[in-house]
Amino acid sequence: MRLSADVGIAINCKYEEELCGDAVQVVRTPGQTTVVLSDGLGSGVKANIMATLTTRIASGLLKRNVPLEHVIATIADTLPICRVRGLAYATLTILQVQQDGKALLYEYDSPPVHLFRKDLVVPLERRAREIHGRRILESTFQLQDGDMLLMVSDGVIHAGVGEAFDLGLGEDGLLHFLTAPCTTWHQAEDLADFVIDLASSCYHHKFGDDCTAVVLRIRPPRGVAVLTGPPLDLKNDAEMVQALLSLASYKKIVCGGTSAGIVSRITGIPLETSLDYVDPRVPPIATMSGIDLVTEGVLTLNRCYEILRAVHDGGIFPRSQDGATLLAKELWNAEEVHFLVGKSFNQAHANIEELMQLAPRQYIVTRLVNFLKKRSIPTEVTYF
Amino acid sequence: MKTIALEFCVGTACHMKGSPDLVASLETLSPWQRKSVELRYTHCLGNCGAGPNVKVNGVLMSRVTPESLVRTISKYLGQG
Questions:
Q1: Which of A88, A140, A296, A338 is most buried, by CB atoms within 10 Å?
Q2: Which of A272, A278, A301, A349 to mutate to test the interface with B (most CBs of B within 10 A)?
Q3: What is the CATH architecture assignment of A223-383?
């Protein structure tokens, strides 16, 4: 089973500090998600620079597909040591989740990462390795759908030290508070916020140290299936619809009025078109039980491509909830995409497409596919 | 109260040929006429070449203009 991870991050600075001495980077490369957490020694600007530098070096190398072991070696070799304390200027945790569920974890001077499975904390086997004179803990383990991983900086472990608790919240305290929420909550962001709220309470809302919590929720990749256009041969209508329905774990999107009509006819599920003309450039969406989004075809696909290009170039998604924006958001967030494209051509569209300089269906789908592939999103197309 | 059921096609061809203008033309109706309209959108009425299409009480009208639509509604409902 292929797996991916949602990453939730929550950070809070030490009381009266403007800069945070913790830094987190998430690097998503084809087939893997890597999270880098670094805690700079002390707090304030120096800690911030060291933590940021450490995470940026690591993420920069990871983006260039440098193997994780080499990344660790590079950082171990370059990380300066504080002359006074004899400690490294920054701690480091790198966790990589691969698409087959294999996880690689490297920890240097940082609080241990915890794995939660259902209502249990699963102990991780670590082995110590000496890399460029640094003692680094290494662990390899297999993840499952629904697993949750928690990374924190030591500000969380020491939360409330000398105030709410003599020795701070501690790992046992953190695990005690977390086991129940981990089994019932499913959003990584919510859990990360929960950890920081917990630390805040322990500190009586005046953080004694920078606090960071990173939560990874393991889940199947977000697949999106887009059915657009009627098949060339009417006999293939059922086959095309069946192909869409067979992609069970995928979000299902239908682009095109005739296409939606075919899906409705084959499945027997009624189609209801919305009365909201949200964006005059794009016809309204429709709803159909079991289908996540139903939009018009060619205009929506062309506008969706425009939006994706704009976002790729640094823009933001439009705030409106029109079909093209909704489709663009789904494709942008997808981790696997499957297009089911009917090759039938509506002659009534020919003049309009020429007049409006719109790309016909198959061309615009090809552009979208190329765009997604450039973003390293596995994309398949099946023609009917 | 007499009502009129309007089903606008908002598919690609009808949209490009002016169905948004047809929808906007309903704003020109008098308040009591508007109350008598049962509005519905659909993604295709199967006559793309002759759009924009509207079904008025189940009867297909093609190449509809805002003027012809308002005229049809007023004829059916009366001017009030």
A1: A296
A2: A349
A3: 3-Layer(aba) Sandwich (3.40)
